[in-house]
Amino acid sequence: MNPHTPTTAGSDVGRGTAAALATQFGFALAVIVFAAAGFFIPSLFNWRWQGVEPRQAIVPLVQLTMLGMGLTLTAADFRRVLARPVVVALGVAAQFGIMPLAGWAFTRLFGLTGEVAAGLILVGSCPGGVASNVITYVARANVPLSVTLTACTTLLSPIVTPLAMRLLAGRDVPIDAGEMFWSIVWVILAPVVAGLVINRFAPGLARRLAGALPPIAMASICIIIAITVALAAPDLRRVGLPLFAAAVCHNATGFFLGYCAARAARLDARDARTVSIEVGIQNGGMATALALNALHSPAAALAAAVFGPWSAFAAAMLAVIWSRRQSAAGRRAAWPRHCRRSR
Fold this sequence. Notes:
This protein is mainly alpha-helical. The protein has helices spanning 8-40, 58-72, 75-83, 85-109, 114-125, 131-138, 143-168, 177-201, 203-231, 233-264, 269-280, 284-293, 302-342. The longest helix is centred in the last third of the chain and has 41 residues, at 302-342.
């Protein structure tokens, strides 16, 4: 075989990576367009007709997204916790240690206060987002580990998220930890468990639903962000620039410190990239639902609306860089073998 001729498996992986990358960039662009529409034409997403408002769709849309996550989970994803408990514990600790504290620090650094500040801390206190699994695949990192970390942080969020909010955001807004706990159980945990049950007892149905739900979930996130921006457009005009700067720094800190923590624990580069992605990408849909239903504040949902579009774009760019470095490293490693075969 000509050493420069790609194998079929390699071509399939390349096509899959390209398709995933195109999907991620397309999603990032769609999120930005919807956010802009919510900001410049808020009447499209903020109206009332016979008691019906677009904001009422946010919780069902988040639940639909989390159902899609549950449909993709299997027992193997949780058995990996037992197989690599130290690695999983490190990822979970980095997620819930770095991001809430970083959110609090950047609210102070950029002068954010009240409900807007609480919103950024809330974003940091949420578990990893399901988009992290796609980004991990594009970056050629450890997808099974990514799925396991997302599942574990999501299952722990009913306890950890209200606690982090009570400790870090209690001076900015009143925090009812009990109400937040039950909101997370209803909006996040119940759909995930429902997806797990369907996957266990009706795998055929789970496969069909899992194939149909990703584009629906992407559209749901776009609509959620548009509604959120429309609801709090005046607040966004007032604090847009410092909030954007804080969100960018928050996201970058998650990627950077997540990677550093993993390397300090002597994880290899592939697992370190996975932890970095998991820490840097947050469940913005969950943050939005909690801001509106537990904090009862559209202004608190603004941070998720700003963090989400930026993190989608930044994560896609980071995945491209890591994917190209991985490809270059693979070519360098393969070159001596090519030389030996040519002799």
